[in-house]
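Z., the sequence and structure:
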Amino acid sequence: MTITVLNNQSLFDLAIRYCGTAQAAFAIAALNNISLTGDLKAGSQLELPLWPSGREIARYFASKGHQPATAWNSENSELPSEYEGVSHWAIKFDFVITQE
């Protein structure tokens, strides 16, 4: 089966939507020779593997017309770029880092 990637979809979104399990993301990446964590381009075509388990979950998404799109990138961020980076993560406020 070939599908078209929608805006902000990740391999995990596609795996859950069409195969019913996030585990299928690994098979999708391998089948299409792409990185598991790379950004997908909207409009690109991907081949999906035959996946025996998770059909009930996949049918649920199809029946409701849901298309998960949880990928995050700087283009769809509402935070200004000044808030990016390790210095703005919660660890800055929750932990004291000392050097021995």
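The chain has a mean pLDDT of 80. Strands lie at 2-4, 45-47.

Let me know what you think.
H.
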